[in-house]
Amino acid sequence: YRGWDGPSIITHWEKVEWTDGGVSYLNSEIVNPHALTLTDETVLVTHERVAQSGTTRDVRVKSRHRSTGAWSNVATPYTGATTGDTLYPCLYMLTSGRVLLFHWMEDTANNLGNVRMHYSDDSGANWTVGARAALAVSVDTSGSNGSGAAGYELGRLRAIYAGGNVYLVSDLTQHNTSPATQDVIQQWGSSD
Description:
This protein is mostly beta strands. Helix content is 0%, strand content 49%.
């Protein structure tokens, strides 16, 4: 036999959090989920939530208990104003078991984006800010789409740990419409 056994078809799904975008729920928008399975088979899911009031944008973490299958709200490591761009949270677990949570922070007054890092040493139950600005140089978010325009739209983040370094990768969309493509993949590395 040569080849690959394809994954099974999806035969089951579970809700993590409901929303209909209307007034009947507390959440008007739940977007940009990212999941991580811990070594004990607990599943953590982080996502971005915009409150029904429209005034706050949260990063939430939920947990699925491995033996009961029940989902629970674990934490809300970040709550901020909705004036910024989307947060695109992502999770990563170090070999020590520490869980890292990264998400964008946009300074709309100065038109800059940077990444905030939180960490948890107790399977996501409690979070501590590890870096308010993880990038040495912030991303320019000024301007709007147009020929020769400056700045970028912030995109999805992903993290990996390799060779003693944490690497972040993000897709950015440049505001300059002159190039054939506006999509940019940006990578950052840390040696600490």
